[in-house]
């Protein structure tokens, strides 16, 4: 078990002069499951490799249990790493692949067998110990890679996109397996992915990165419900938050030329207090917070917005409805029994308790 602290970590490649990780600061508690998520090239895997000792740290400090690790060899950091491509030895059996690190340490044969069999039992690999990797499915190979990490009894697990080579069904199954494994072992884990669904379903806390910088750190609920900035709002969620350019007239929001959205009193007070009258803003709302009706409700006619369905996708229990509002595409979720079809005229009601406003220039959250 271990606590980690990354303090003002920078990574720059001299030959390119490119800073790929910029002032990364994060404290990780003992036993936490932390997920680094972000688009390709955002610095998440590079940060993981610096923690593992596979990349040098340009500046800053990496502390594990209070001890600086910048110049400690990877083998002496008490870290086990699971790679995207499994990194199994094709000529070795499952047993020997899992046992390889223990044999390097010259542990007694009896202890090695005990550790391997325990890991195989945890991961459901008992009947595969004599097979070679080529005789296993992708999910079974990933279990072997996890088993090799488990037997080391390391204080930290690092996982670099371990499920990206699996099909959709196997990814869901392996997500559940990894969570069960973490709940059982309680080992401090850092998991890298570009898949925000994995991040939301697996993490104790999510670290969202973009262009080498931390955009937000928080629990899955925090980053989904309270994004700090426009990037997080549009990156987290599937489909992501709908974003509209708008202007605030001191009482209401104008989206385009014809759509007026009357705000709640506290929203009006806050925007006025921060001098946003007659200013451009970004208005955000998630697909599930847009209610759709197929006819005008006279009691709500002043707040209803009319548009036409462009695309309607049946997702099983719900439709994803795509339409246009004042030249901006948006998505809304609708229960499948509503039967909303392409070309239908619809009327929108926004849940004003779930709206978000972002500064037009800084892209930071206002309210």
From TrEMBL:
Keyword Hydrolase recorded: no
UniProt superkingdom: Bacteria
Keyword Nucleotide-binding: yes
Cross-referenced InterPro entries: AAA+_ATPase, ABC_transporter-like_ATP-bd, ABC_transporter-like_CS, ABC_transpr_MalK-like, ABC_transpr_MalK/UgpC-like, Mo/tungstate-bd_C_term_dom, NA-bd_OB-fold, OB_MalK-like
A GO biological-process term: carbohydrate transport
Domain (ABC transporter) ranges: 4-236
Record-linked PROSITE patterns: ABC_TRANSPORTER_1, ABC_TRANSPORTER_2
Alphabetical list of SUPFAM superfamilies matching this protein: MOP-like, P-loop containing nucleoside triphosphate hydrolases
Record GO cellular component, one term: ATP-binding cassette (ABC) transporter complex, substrate-binding subunit-containing
Pfam family, one: OB_MalK
Keyword terms: ATP-binding, Nucleotide-binding, Sugar transport, Transport
Single Gene Ontology MF annotation: ATP binding
CDD domains: ABC_MalK_N
NCBIfam families linked: PRK11650.1
Protein name: Multiple sugar transport system ATP-binding protein
